[in-house]
Amino acid sequence: MDAQRILVASGDAGARERARQHLVRSGFSVCVVESGPELRDLADREPGFDLILLDLESLALSPADLEAGPAFRAAALVLALGPDAGPPAAPAFGAAEWLREALASPELPRLLAPILERRELRAENASLRAVTRAFEQTRVLSTCVDASDVLPLGLEMLLGLLEGGGAVGRLQLVGPEAGDELCLRGFAPELAETIRREAEWGKLFSLEPGEPGEPGAERRGAALQREWLRLGMDAPEVLEFWLCEPSGTAGAVWILREGQPFSVAERRAARVVATQMNLALATTARFAEIRERAFRDDVTSLHNVRYLFWALRREVERARRSKLDLSVLFLDLDWFKRVNDSHGHLVGSAVLREFGDLLKQWVRSIDTVGRYGGDEFAMILVDTPLEAARGVAERIRRQVEASRFGGGSGLSCRVTVSIGAASFPGHGTEAEALVDRADRAMYRAKELGRNRVCCAEASEPPA
After folding, report:
1. Residue ranges, CATH 3.30.450.40, the chain
2. What is the Cα–Cα distance from 377 to 356, expressed in whole angstroms?
3. Model-level pTM greater than 0.70?
């Protein structure tokens, strides 16, 4: 265990030195100063003192020498009044303890020991209260069903538990909602914009590959402090915790505060929040796995109609916000009933699976393909205008026409496909309207002879 640190402030050189010797022999780590300004300077530079002992008989102190610096808030502040002095009428300088004993007395270590014990008990009680409060506040994290909800909620809790400062969270999501989430709380708008820009460039708050970390474990913030200085800002105190869960989602949380180190109680409370955020991420991962299974078609393993509408509503909102193109393809196999009637439903299911595999070749990671029902399929093409979507549909049509299906069943079936296309916002501004217009365009392709692509008409009235 590290030796407890005591700062002795006295203008009497002899008493100061004898006090230092008595305390060092008793196992304390001791620093000494001889004036108020020197006291304030040292306490600001080295705030980690357990006790500050002020010799009021030899020091001319002003309240400014003890102004609310971090050292004076964290340490036990003790006044050495001398053997003939009575207790102060009021707690001078905010001191909670005083000694009626000469500073140079060999009894000094014995007299300070219970004061330090009381300080440790108060600190432990404060820590337990902070941890209890953190546990109570983090219960709501268990209600999160999406990983992207964990960051903003967790950061708000951290700033509520810790005094002042700002917080940054970053997540690299895996699975169906893969992406990079960055969340900021507690910063002025201009600083927040700078942080966001630097983070997007990888210069701040990066998640280094190959650094798995331990869930909830505090990380070192020295590199972040250096980057902060590079931006021309005072280096803050930093708490940094890993976020990770078994499915592969990883991230970190940073809490920053200028001028005031984080206390033991605050560190423990922050660690509780970080640990609960990890548990919440694990819960959202399990929920996402269950939801993924519920959103899969049993025959083709593509997304089903429930997921298609959920994804399309999300993409419509994104296209609306970002003013991006969005297109929907509705596909229907021609005369598919003849396959089932001629070869049986097992062969028909094999044809559907192979057709689904073919469609997957034509979508990017940001697109969505799924089985709408029966022999009907749909594709959501993100950031794709109508003409580009029509080109994709035509290439799919030609590949289907040239392919043979049912190979897994030892057969070689020929099928064709009719495809309808519609786009946002020209053919609809809601998910249901887009699907309806693409579906009607597909039926027009059927009426025109099948095995063709038709686009929704701008003048076509809604159903």
Report:
1. 134-293
2. 8
3. no
